[in-house]
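pinned: reference chain
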Amino acid sequence: MNARLLALLAVAAEFADPPAPVVVARRRVWVHNINRGRRQYGEYHRLCQELRLDEDRFKIYFRLNRQQFAEVLSLIGPTIAKMTTNYRESISPAQRLCICLRYLSTGDSYRSIAFSYRVGFCTVARIVKSVCEAIWQCMVSTYMPVPGAEDWRKIAGDFEKLADFPNCLGAIDGKHVVIQAPPSTGSQYFNYKGAFSIVLLAVVDARYRFRVVDVGAYGRSSDGGTLASSAFGTARDHLGPQPHVFIGDEAFPLRRNLLRPYPGQNLGGERRVYNFRLSHARRIVECAFGILANQWRLYRRVLGVSPEVAESAVKATCILHNYMRWEGEGEDGPRSPIVPSQGAVQSIPRVGSNNASREAVAVRETFSSYFSSLPGRVTWQDGI
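pinned: its structure tokens
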């Protein structure tokens, strides 16, 4: 190699880029050092075990008493159980249920619950989603079964006995569950209250239990629009020609099987009484939503989860709400269902396949006349 070539190589070396530094990737730990102390300092192994000695505080913490907690765990335990491997010990079904119930009862962020129970953030997210889905799948057939003909008759008997509204199959209303704005969804979830939400549409019986729910509609939808697009809304018009009805507020349309109040303020005597009786019976669904939100405080938070997870959480709380109110059903139960006869609302003959609105108006007028007549009159309506 001659001297000239050596000189050119030396000049090229001076202007060449410096060699890139060698970057050694930081090895991620399998379990964080803080989480290694789960058995010594985790909330499940410390506080939750102490709460088992105090029934009142246990129920305040989990919203279920110890017996109810054990029953729910026995129902969903096999579904949420995970296998322990040679690399790490699995989280027990009881601890998974504790984490999920704590989220539902407080609405705290995944991070705060993860720090308390000394588990990973993503672990809490997976646990909440899987346990909520298991609660729905394992308990819906028992605590929110699809009502049959006999069930509808019993619901109607309860409304006549407890709410003085005959031939009523349930009170219907919608509730907005506030969530963070999902990415790339525009204004689909933006509701008229100025927040992002999904809609819980529910039919409630006279004992404040959810009999039919539809969850997940866009927040921008009205209650009437949500009903029309739901599976329940498309099926309710096939209940038969008899005037067994659902009751709702002004947000719902007037249909043959769905009653709403008369509009306006200056109403005559019969219509004013009808609105009062309808409102008296329809308050049940408002009370049910109040009980639900007071029991499960996630409804008072802005949920920082995806709409799919929020839907699973809402459905799980509805099942748990029914589970807690299903006990003692036979006590002070409704009278035996009877077919409406002389003293009750009479069946309305069908006017024609293209005259549903006329038939709906006739049904409402019949209820209005009945509430002001002697057979349907109650003493407490005189004070309106």
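why pinned: The radius of gyration is 29 Å. The longest strand covers residues 168-178.
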